[in-house]
Design the sequence.
DNA sequence: CCCTAAACGAGACGGTACGTCTAGTCTTATG
DNA sequence: CATAAGACTAGACGTACCGTCTCGTTTAGGG
């Protein structure tokens, strides 16, 4: 996400200050980790960053989008590219990394808060989908496609379903908090999914039932 | 949930009016379905229900808890008890009923909004956990335990993991909205989980690995 | 009284709008005259002036202080400077002008209400004292001092006592309402005071008794 | 003032409790002296007196009337009947007693608050006028009439004006608080009034000017 | 000795206004 | 033109009391 979220930059006039931008993001990250998204106010960010509110609104249309960018600056570097050579190995590595990044951390709290916020902020929902959900799915998709290429699972397995079955349960525990989100849980989920996929459970229904 | 959400009832003084209670819940349900939780205000509820704000605060400590109760009055009757005789049949029926109740409906929107709200409202989080999550899990648990009793799946399958694998993916699609939440999807999820469970994927790791 | 009743003005940022200030005062005067101080609410003022409540609180710390300023904008122009050449003439003119301004008028009602309000609002009490009581006394004091200079009354007359004896009875009738407050009454009061003063009644006790 | 301020007592049914009445008055006096009329709430009185709000409203129609009765239970015994034999002696004694009762005392604060409250409470205004103003005036009137009978002052002096000139200045200092209300001040006022009256200043204008 | 009716404590009720907070926009002077 | 500051309108928040209204309970006569 570049700075010019709202409108094209203009060549004329005073250029936007990179320092202002960084000060805002830094203040946002700090407030986000200290108090959470819900308690974050644009006024507090402006005041902590020693910046006018206008300078924030000029760059980000809403608190959610701003928080998303601040969140990503922390989150992305925690999700390394993975290729272990086996489906179960890849999935275990990916899901474990994710669990490690979010279970019991401010990052995890922010992730949850952003999903929550996106439910009532359509712009954030779109940005979230494009910049987080899609990015992650592309990574996971290639793991599964490699597994298909290796004939580990049936050629016509429904990749989307498999991906949702990997991350769905993990998000579920993160959001509902009813049971702890551990690496052990992640490995169990992977085990069930891999077993189910190898047994052909993810083959599309129309074909499967035929 | 009785009226005395905040403190226990007192024999003395004028009793709380059941009509007032119903009027508030009715108004809340209506506003929730029309405008959603985010746009719901206590003042609007009071005004629509022709009730003083105090009569609401006397009963419910926050907008979230009020909305939860209103939500449950709609939601609960959409989740029938189920016993089809087979694990796959039970799970398909339960998950399909859930999908039918929430996919593309105001009820679904409210459910999502409540999960979102619970992320920043500890009281609501507790109430949500007790009144929704636990209630659902008890129902699902008995299905899986019947399956174990019928020897459909291994005796030592991790019931909690299996439940999270059923509802996790469905919640995931509902919350992230990246792909449609359909009955077909529900059946695929069930197929993978049942296949994985029968293959022993849900057996606890310590034992499984041994 | 400048706009910056609460804190000193700041050079930076958007300056306070003079139009807003006038709109608030105008609305306050109108509501004060229509309904009285007791029935005046900040919310009504804001709504009539088409102004946010904050814009009122930013300028005036309480309803009483706001009402005082609105009152003064009406009242001050009704109290002309006076110099007739004789003590009785001056006092008659001054007291008659006061009686004319307050007897049976909204201004009088507001004056009474402000005195009432000041009894339970220390800030208003101070402002009232400084901006009304002291201002009036300074005017009256000079009349009496001129009379002393003309040798109309004894040099050592207690000016404070004489002033309280002029306005005290008038305020008394205005506040207690037991008898009408007329110009005739004002002239009688002046007659007694002038007669008493000339007879030496206002000379301080210690000297008087000696 | 009897208990039945609002409506006739009824022979049938449970009689009103004298203890309740006293408990309410006692609580009112205490709260009045501790916090003042402005901060007095019916709810606090009820709670302190361990009495239902209804039991208060059954007896007194408003906070002002209740406070008036509580006030009088303290005040009346501080205003003794007076007859010294001379006008100046009578007036000095009466005014000094009044000053002693109200200057710097809770009683004085309550008296001021009641006058203030009466400005926006017509019922209280009437009761105040009848039970305080008139009672005092009747006492003072007889002093002046005795002085006329003794030929101390002119037969046709305006008694009402003289009375307002005695108490007006004293009320003035009590209410405006601009200068201390002392016995010395009271004596100066009396001196001026007596001197003015003897000089014929209080004779009605129409006759006086003729 | 019951019966009836009012008083009683408690506290719920519909309202109103409070003073605070935050949102997102607008308006200055300055760079 | 961007910037920092801060004023602007708007409107919800949760609280405090108001004066009224139920409750179940108590306390007296009158029959």
Sequence:
């Amino acid at each position: 996400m570049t700075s010019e979220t709202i409108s094209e930059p203009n060549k004329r006039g005073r250029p936007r200050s990179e320092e202002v931008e960084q000060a805002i993001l830094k203040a946002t990250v700090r407030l986000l980790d200290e108090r959470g998204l819900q308690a974050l106010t644009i006024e507090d960010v402006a005041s902590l960053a020693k910046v006018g509110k206008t300078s924030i609104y000029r760059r980000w249309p809403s608190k959610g989008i701003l928080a998303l960018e601040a969140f990503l600056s922390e989150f992305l570097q925690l999700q390394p590219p993975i290729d272990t050579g086996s489906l179960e190995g890849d999935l275990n590595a990916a899901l474990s990394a994710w669990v490690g990044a979010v279970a019991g951390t401010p990052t995890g709290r922010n992730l949850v808060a952003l999903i929550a916020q996106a439910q009532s902020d359509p712009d954030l929902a779109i940005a979230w989908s494009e910049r987080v959900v899609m990015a992650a799915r592309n990574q996971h998709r290639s793991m599964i496609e490699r597994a298909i290429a290796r004939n580990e699972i049936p050629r016509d397995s429904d990749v989307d379903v498999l991906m949702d079955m990997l991350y769905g349960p993990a998000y579920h525990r993160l959001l509902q908090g009813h049971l702890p989100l551990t690496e052990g849980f992640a490995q169990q989920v992977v085990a069930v999914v891999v077993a189910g996929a190898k047994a052909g459970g993810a083959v599309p229904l129309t074909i499967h039932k035929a």
